[in-house]
Amino acid sequence: MRKGFTLIEILVSLVILGLITTMAMRVFRSQHQSWKSESDRADIALMAKGTLEEIGRAIRMTGGALPQGAGGIRIWTTTEPGVTFVLNQTQWADTAYGSTYLPGERKLRVAIDSAAKFSDSGFVILSATSTATSTTDVYRLPILERVTRFGSCTKDSLVLDAGILVDPPNSFSTSADISVPSNTLVFNLDSISYFKSHDSLFYKANQNPPMLFALGIDTLKFSYFHPVDGWRSGLSTSNPAGRIDMVRIRLVMRTLKASRSLLEKDSTSRGHRFIRLETEVSMRNDSLVNL
Fold first, then answer.
1. Is residue 17 part of a domain?
2. Number of structural domains, the chain?
3. Residue where one domain finishes, among candidates 183, 203, 226
4. Has residue 263 been placed in a domain?
5. Which of 34, 47, 220, 249 is the residue whose CA sits 20 to 30 A from 17?
6. Model pTM?
7. Three-class SS of residue 262?
8. Using an 8 Å Cβ cutoff, are 70 and 125 in contact?
9. Residue 28: what pLDDT?
10. Of 202, 200, 204, 249, nearest to 224 (Cα)?
């Protein structure tokens, strides 16, 4: 007659099975955490590298394909952290064929060859002459409208925001105060801004609404190299004033989701893994008029 298992044998077997299962789960959990850690690091490293490359590209192009003193960088205030780069990304220039200044409407209309080559939300840079002083200055004006030729019109035109001409210190108040000389080149400008809000980096092109560019931004800092004062957090007033030879970008990115186990191991980590990258980008144009 065949004997069965005793209660003690069954209990011992269950205990052994439980120990083996627990050890296997611990090994699996450890391997999963290790895989998750490496995956998180790879994700933030890829995002950090892409972020630096994109910002660096905008820096290198700032002022490129523009006349001397036409481009620029606008460094935001400490209460509004960020930076704006002005460039001619399309490298497009047109020719002006006269203009109509409408100070009451805060508009300047300029006849050109092709309105299709300009952006609805972009900017142009052009030379305008004060008829009172006979001096010619360069102005950067937002595009309000592009008008293609129709009827008897032989040229397209751009309708520009002329607020900078109407407002002080310019205060050109009559239609006879400003004229755009014929054959003056009109340059199509891009304006690219980067700014951080909480743990997100936003990108703003021209006058378009901001778009989310990257997540998990723990720290983003810009420094600017002046030939006399060295690295600074803002523009220098030393001669040459406003000069920027290089831009340094310091970026710290973190994983989006906090890890409880990591927080228990290291409270200073806040439960996140971090990657720190830094790069320095030389300016293509060192004669910029900073905004």
1. no
2. 2
3. 183
4. yes
5. 34
6. 0.73
7. helix
8. yes
9. 66
10. 249
Would you mind telling me the total number of residues written for the chain in this entry? 291
DSSP character for 207?
Answer: T
DSSP code, position 96? -
The angle at the Cα of 194, spanning 192 to 198, to the nearest 5 degrees, equals 155
DSSP character at residue 199: T
Residue 239: domain span: 41-84+194-282
Domain closes at, from 135, 151, 183: 183
User: Which residue in 222, 283, 276 sits closest to 58, CA to CA?
Assistant: 283
Choice between 156 and 34, residue whose per-residue pLDDT is larger: 156
pLDDT at 173: 92
Q: Are 263 and 269 in contact (CB under 8 A)?
A: yes
Taking the CB of residue 186, how many other CB atoms lie within 10 A of it? 25
| Beta strands at 274-282 and 246-254: parallel, antiparallel or unpaired | antiparallel
Secondary structure letter of residue 45 according to DSSP: H
Tell which wins on pLDDT, 155 or 153. 155
On whether both 202 and 235 belong to a single domain, the answer is yes
Q: What span, in angstroms and rounded, lies between the C-alpha atoms of 235 and 241?
A: 8
In a domain, 114, yes or no: yes
Residues sharing a CB contact under 8 Å with residue 123, sequence separation 6 or more, in sequence order: 86, 140, 141, 142, 143, 188, 189, 190, 191, 206
Residue 145 pLDDT: 94
C-alpha distance across the termini of the chain, in Å: 99
Same domain for 203 and 64?
Answer: yes
CA atoms within 13 A on the CB side of 7: 0
CB 102 within 8 A of CB 144: no
Cα 184 vs. chain centroid, distance in angstroms?
Answer: 30
If one compares 20 and 278, the residue with the highest pLDDT of the two is 278
Is 98:152 a contact under the CB 8 Å cutoff? no
